[in-house]
What does this fold into?
Amino acid sequence: MANEKKIVWTKKDLLGLEYLSREEIEHILYTAASFKEVTTRQIKKVPALRGKTVVNLFYEPSTRTRISFELAAKRLSADVINVGVESSSVRKGETLIDTGKNIEALKIDIIVVRHDCSGAPNILARSVKASVVNAGDGWHEHPTQALLDIFTLRSKLGRIEGLDVSIIGDIAHSRVARSNIWGLTKLGAKVTVCAPKSLIPEGIEKMGVKVTNDLDEAIREADAINVLRMQLERDTSGVFPTKIDFFRQYGISEERLKICKKDIVVMHPGPINRGVEMSSQVADGQNSVILEQVTNGIAVRMAVLYLVAHVKR
Amino acid sequence: MKYLIKNGRVIDPANKIDDILDILIWDGKIEKIGKLLSDKAQLIDAKGMIVAPGLVDMHTHLREPGREDEETILTGTLAAIKGGFTSVACMPNTEPPLDNPAIIRSLKDLIKKNAKANVFIIGSITEGRAGKRATDLHKMKKAGAVAVSDDGSSVDDEAVMLSALEQSREEALLIIGHCEDRKLSASGVMNHGFTATKLGLKGISSESEYERVKRDIELAKRASARIHIAHVSTKESVDIMRRARGEGVKVTAETAPHYLTLTEECCAAYDTYTKMNPPLRSEEDVEELKRGLKDGTIDAIATDHAPHTDSEKDVEFDFAPFGIIGLETALSLCAMELVEKKILSWPELITKMSVNPANILGIERGSLKAGSVADVVIIDPDKEYTYTKDSIVSRSKNSPFINWVLKGKVAKVFVGGRLASDSG
It folds into this structure.
């Protein structure tokens, strides 16, 4: 099922899918497939990263991504340390680079970083010899999320090439959207983004996607839809319509899905705002693969940690 | 000390000179300029070189008082000289700001003691640069300010700006406008557009600049005052100014070397040395700025030299302060981007970097006429060199041009007849 063009992984960091070739993305997915098998065993552990240390450096609150990375690292037998940093708007004391250098001085192998500033992992990666894995930076990228989305999609539909995939929601402020656009287009999917005008970022069509403000148009022919959460805690400039408006125009309900393909795959990066971007029925319904995404997340993150850890330095 | 500069290509646009001539410097002044001079003076062979009036930077941040960790009058003027600038005008966003006669006078003393080049003072338009109350322009001029600006900020209140412009006309003291509508640009960190979308960074729209340019020109028109627009970066601003000048409005403008050399795409690696305000824009903007320089819509090139320490800049892109240094690279960058690409000739470039800034500020510089102050720069137009971090004279090293190979090097600089810099 996975395209087996094996390559030698040479990148010490995973900062975004923009920076990866099609072959590199395929290689991660291929590696993830073998780690998925591990998660079905009685003893869900392999020694691949034994003796290595992973630090989860989270400048933004996140339970699911952090736990996912933590489990991925532990199942590879790595030691894991979680470092949570207070809200960035009151950031005092140590700079990002100083924090990175201090962590490096502890001889850490991999820093998994989530940060509310776009580009923070890029800046960190330049200043440390350790591997830096982007767990989500500002509006920029969330590469492992997109990878697990693509992994899940392929496991349901057998391919990515030629698929019609629509991403729905606050595209402007979404790192999940950007990473998915990079990954899906590189693997040959036809991507559409759908949002109210105020949430479509400038020039997004230059990434090779179709743009529409009409939900029906976006989902009618789609093989899969990826429904983003309304990022209520991120944007403060008042561009959001109200929650109820949003659900009426852009929310995925059973009613809406009636115009879609019967086997349409419904994805969501979580956590779901039930009744805002998606109804409970759809979230829990037969088209939803949301929980599989979560399961696949572990395998994908194991693959990423494994690959960057074994780069020759 | 007497100096005789021989065999150089003397470019003195103020006096319509572009010829192989000799220049005799004595007692701080240009003593004589002519063919085949001879004198018992220190001989300087300028064969193959350009000899021009010292460059005048009408937009520099010297950071003193308050941020001597970033730059001082001493280090800033040394950096200026390295770049061929014999005069700089320093902006008032210091700590405390240059918003009253007393601080201007005390800065003058400091300049007298420490400056290695001429430093002209730009005071602030409003008290504290807060945009609420205009300063007394009469007193500011008397204390020695050559212009006023709230640079770093625009004066948002139209009534305040209008009254300041009226004072400006009365006192014949130039207002320099930093044109930015903070309501539109708020929390933006780079040019609004596709690159910002890819990088996930908040954009600063062109509109936030050109709407304010439009407003400031309109207010200047109403007050029948002159106005100078600082750091123009957008094609719309150029267009607006072109039309205003066509209508006879007394507006002048400057742009900076980095707006001619770099675009928003340079921000792709989140290098904070590409973060400044106004931000780097698009190719179309760069093209229009060059057109504006060529057709005279943009009168001057000014560096907007904005020193920041490594520790200030080595942070997340969102948190880094805006600004890059520019005194030491301006001439080379402009020679490469404008002269080499046949957009401006050398005399036209010298006009933009020396003659016009001097005229706009109303200072007696930018001329090599006999009797003028001997502020002279000798340029080797073909010399290539690598701009390394170690070679930077400024106290701060925040330049996106580090490790660039540049062409057009300053060979010697005279400030008031004193050989201030000699690199061969």
In short: Chain B has two domains: 3-50+373-382+405-422, 54-361.
